[in-house]
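Q: How would the structure tokens look for this protein?
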Amino acid sequence: MNRFIASLLALSLIGSSITFADNESFDQNSDDFISYTMSFESADEVIKKQTPYKHVNTFANHIGLSTMLPAKFQMDDQEVLNAKEEENIEKLTNYVKTLNLNERNSGLEEAYLKEIDSFLDDDGYLESYSVNVPKYSAARSSSTKGTSYFGTYDDIEFRYYTSKSNTRYDFEIDKKSDINDYLGGAADLVMLFSPFTAVNIGYTLLRNMPSNYEVYRGDTIEANVAEEAYSRFVLADDVNGNPGHYIAVYTDQKKKVRTTILYKSCDPDVGTDIDAIYGPKYVYTPNYKSKSKALKIAYNMYVSGDGTEIHSERLPNAKIYID
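A: Here is the predicted structure in token form.
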């Protein structure tokens, strides 16, 4: 949540809205990059492995002995995912350090590690992460446009690397009055991307919802948000200090977001296949689709900085609520 709030503040300072597109060729060309990927157990797999411990805890609680069980038996799903993610992030951090990203660059490894560390501060669960390195690592002139070439500004060449991450976020709505308002059409399920951009998901998108359904006590709406994010790391040729050596100066981001909504009814006569799938939606930081603006920011960071500061534009994680 802290990361979400901080991201909103950062976007408001930029003063530009996020750009949406419904359809586009979103994936980068895999022929141009070498991907170093680490994949982890999915959130569903991690939670499934915890099920036997939860059963033991339920029984122990019934006989008054749950407090005597080890902590692992008493963890809820989110605590289990948090613990697993901490373990995964440590492995990922050590792996990225073996890639020698700073061999001909400055600040690139640190930029990747800062992004990786940020996953610990949000409410999601990282399922995979890739460091995408251009096959031709040396920057090319604008006439040949090598795969790492990003552009030239005032005779300074810039190149870029990318990352790809797949993260899952889970939300649950269990307040009966909110659910009644949603099913009655008095409120929508809102997916918020920024202070400027929100998407309303109406109840009519739910498949197999009985007409005139009466909300049972214990009914819940679960929303799963799957985010596929690409971050772009732009580097400047250090012409003023060490030509041919590149300094990380700018990062921005784009995401593909798909939302699955599941209505869990406590009515024994109602099926369990009441759901909706929304998306994918594509979302960008303000300057991602304007290379000229991104280049200008990168240039200004290079000429005004000391090589230790990076201008970072990142998207907040989607937040879902009834309104």
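Residues 1-26, 53-57, 138-144 have pLDDT under 50 and may be disordered.

The CA atoms of residues 93 and 114 lie 10 Å apart.

Upvote if useful.
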